[in-house]
Design brief:
Helix content: 40-55%
Order of helices and strands: EHEHEHEHHEHHEHHEHEH
Number of strands: 8
Bound molecules: phosphoenolpyruvate
Distance between the termini: 13 Å
Number of domains: 1
Radius of gyration: 17 Å
CATH architecture: Alpha-Beta Barrel
Shape: globular
Structural class: alpha/beta
Length: 260
């Protein structure tokens, strides 16, 4: 099996102004050590990316945008492009369920954003996952299939080295239903995603792909989730705003890696 790194991503959503963001990075910097196999990624608001890019120790932290627009430039008032973010971030969250549900992002928008990120040298963290209703109606696999295949549609198999996936069942996210997913449910979904990847791009690409889990992950439950085979890290929302919890989560990831 290919040796994949572990990614712990903090999605700060629409929280923290520039000053508060800087303070949180300062606190995290005091607590988090650099680990070779672990990448710690922070996704603050768009406004904080520039100042934080000057503040962070880049050996310790990488930055991610929470979203960006798929056109590189033009008359798109209010938007920021992946091109503009090129110097600031290594990653960008794409297709987060909040974007899909609150801002009407379609499968095609997510596809175009994933391609725009890769085109601009930014690794998209593409979020996929079913809603509670889709889950209850037995639609999960179909939804995951459609989201996955469309999101990757305009990428080549070589581009896939520059893509990360995050399986985030919407019903498990703290700001939606916040129901804790059971490790075996995640196991099944991740296996399904890798099978789909193998069908589309071959076994090697499927084994190389980093797949994160997200949905109410905190310092208490992260171990169980990271121990699910095929889970390469966590996309953490609410708990990433608490530096004790976030640092503890990074530490747990480290413990698991050195034991492996
Ligand atoms: C998220 O926003 O991607 C997320 C998983 O949030 P939370 O950890 O708060 O459920």
């Amino acid at each position: 099996m290919h040796e994949r790194k572990t990614l712990i991503v903090g999605n700060w959503k629409m929280h923290l102004n520039v000053h508060q963001s800087s303070l949180l990075v300062h606190r995290l910097n005091e607590r988090i050590k650099t680990h070779r196999a672990i990448e710690v990624v922070l996704a603050p608001s768009m406004l904080s990316l520039q100042p934080l890019s000057l503040q962070i120790d880049r050996r310790k932290f990488k930055l991610a945008a929470q979203d960006a627009y798929f056109k590189d430039e033009g008359g798109y008032t209010g938007e920021v492009s992946f091109t503009m973010l090129g110097d600031l971030v290594e990653y960008a969250i794409v297709g987060h369920s909040a974007r899909r549900l609150y801002f009407g992002e379609t499968l095609e928008t997510v596809r175009d954003k994933a391609a725009a990120a890769v085109r601009n040298g930014i690794t998209p963290i593409i979020c996929i996952g079913e809603t509670k209703q889709e889950h209850d109606e037995g639609q999960s696999r179909q939804v995951i299939h459609d989201q996955l295949t469309t999101a990757l549609m305009n990428l080549t198999s070589r581009d896939l080295d520059k893509v990360v996936l995050a399986y985030e069942p919407v019903w498990a996210i703290s700001t939606f239903d916040g129901i804790l997913a059971k490790p075996h449910e995640i196991d099944q979904a991740i296996k399904y995603i890798r099978t789909q990847l193998a069908d589309l791009y071959g076994q090697r690409a499927a084994e190389k792909m980093l797949i994160l889990y997200g949905g109410s992950v905190d310092d208490q439950d992260i171990r169980a989730y990271l121990e699910v085979p095929g889970v390469d890290g966590a996309l953490v929302g609410a708990a990433s705003l608490n530096y004790h919890q976030f640092a503890a989560m990074v530490d747990t990831a480290y413990q698991i890696r050195i034991r492996a």
